[in-house]
Specification:
Length: about 90
């Protein structure tokens, strides 16, 4: 048995709402989560500064960047992690 047997795999992509639920349960404030993911989306999608982000979905590369900053949510492991693949 490995340590990942009881953990769920992190999905390939997710919604902002689901991301918020995961990290609120880890003790991160909703404001910090939303600000961070919106900044990541804005940077990755080359959006103009100050543009309101209406997208509800978080792409794979954006989710991976968020996880790098905040760590994995409780009860999840990252099957896409380059560190674990080595």
């Amino acid at each position: 048995m490995t340590g990942t047997d009881k953990l769920k795999p992190l999905p390939y992509s997710t919604s902002k709402n689901q991301l918020t639920k995961w990290y609120i349960s880890c003790g991160v404030s909703e404001k910090n989560i939303r600000h961070a993911i919106n900044a990541i989306i804005s940077d990755n999608r080359k959006l103009p500064p100050g543009k309101t982000i209406y997208d509800k979905n978080v792409r794979h590369d954006e989710l991976q960047e968020f996880v790098e900053q905040f760590g994995l949510p409780k009860d999840y492991y990252n099957p896409y992690s380059k560190k674990e693949a080595i």
